[in-house]
Design goal:
Blueprint lengths: L1 E10 H8 L5 E5 L5 E5 L11 E10 L5 E8 L1
Antiparallel strand pairs: 1-4, 2-3, 4-5
Length: 74
């Protein structure tokens, strides 16, 4: 299994576009410089009144399928 780490800051107003389905994926730059894309709905459980802020970790398998995502710090 592989993992990536990244920092994410999305305002509540901006995330509304993801939540409403206007945008269906999130593209980010990882801490090691790679650019990845994943489904926006993976972030639903991390939304607060101010948006989504924090450092995250995604674990994926050898076929690059996302297995899990977790917030590792705010």
């Amino acid at each position: 299994m592989n993992e990536i780490r990244f920092r994410l800051e999305i305002s509540a107003q901006e995330y509304l576009r993801y939540y409403q389905g206007e945008v269906d994926s999130v593209q980010i730059r990882t801490t090691d410089g790679r650019i990845i894309q994943f489904p926006a709905n993976a972030l639903h459980k991390y939304i607060t009144q101010t948006g989504i802020n924090g450092s995250f970790r995604i674990v994926f398998d050898d076929n690059n399928k996302m297995l899990s995502m977790e917030r590792v710090s705010n």
